[in-house]
Specification:
- It contains six helices and nine strands.
- By secondary structure, it is an alpha/beta fold.
- Strand 6, helix 6 and strand 7 form a beta-alpha-beta unit.
- Helix 2 packs across helix 4.
- It binds S-adenosyl-L-homocysteine.
- It is an enzyme of class 2 (transferase).
- Keywords: Cytoplasm, Methyltransferase, S-adenosyl-L-methionine, Transferase.
Length: about 210
């Protein structure tokens, strides 16, 4: 299966029916072929609206969830974005179509290397992917306009909140790893932090330290 006009139409229709209505987000998702980020046995399911397994026991998120999280971030073209949880690199590629610069971090070196290779093959040059424990954020490049976590924390990590600029938005799943989590949006205002609860989600947990692959 290829990401041809008919497949794209179906893919975008499924996204819209799940509430992804922001045209800039839909256009970005039309520009990124999910099959490039899903390898092996599951490649033929790349355009289905479901999470799929990737290397290191991790998952590429469901496209509609990627769309809803991206939409909630309200990215503008001048934004510098930090993503925690590179995984396959699919979400980062979509962010790269909307933002000026994307930094993405994963605790598995192997995932970061594979994602970099796909970015390069697709001529995506505004993403920096690196291996680290992302719960500390990336102080060298802080503050960020937008921060996205694609792994669930029990609470928003303090170092990440500290790296969000005034007016900045962070979107993340919070909750216990094996229970239903909530996707929340945190906005930093002049006077503090505002929290919105968006919907129930299920993500892999945010873990400490580096992965062993
Ligand atoms: N955004 C990804 C999906 C990520 S799955 C995509 O589009 O494919 C969640 C990822 O978070 C996993 O790859 C996992 O290794 C990573 N992760 C979990 N805890 C982490 C941490 N503390 N720092 C960095 N990455 C972490």
């Amino acid at each position: 299966m290829t990401f041809d006009a008919a497949t794209k139409m179906q893919f975008l229709y499924a996204l819209r029916s799940k509430g992804v209505t922001d045209t800039r987000v839909l256009t970005a998702m039309e520009q990124v072929d999910r099959a490039d980020y899903v390898k092996g046995t599951f490649a033929d399911r790349a355009y289905d609206d479901m999470p799929l397994p990737i290397a290191c026991g991790q998952t590429i998120s469901q496209p509609s969830v990627v769309g809803l999280m991206t939409q909630a971030l309200q990215i503008t073209p001048r934004d510098k974005v930090l993503e925690i949880g590179t995984g396959s690199g699919y979400q980062a590629a979509i962010l790269s179509k909307l933002a000026r610069r994307v930094y993405t971090v994963d605790r598995y070196r192997r995932l970061v290397q594979a994602a970099r290779a796909v970015f390069e093959a697709n001529d995506i040059t505004n993403i920096t992917a690196f291996t680290a424990d992302g719960s500390h954020g990336f102080a060298e490049q802080a503050p960020f306009d937008r921060i996205l976590l694609t792994a669930a924390a029990e609470d928003p990590p303090g170092p990440l909140l500290a790296q969000l600029r005034v007016g900045g938005i962070m979107v993340l799943p919070v909750g216990q790893s094996d229970a239903v989590q909530s996707l929340i949006r945190v906005t930093r205002t002049e006077t503090g932090l505002e929290y919105d609860e968006l919907r129930a989600v299920r993500f892999v947990p945010l873990l400490e330290g580096l992965g062993q692959e």
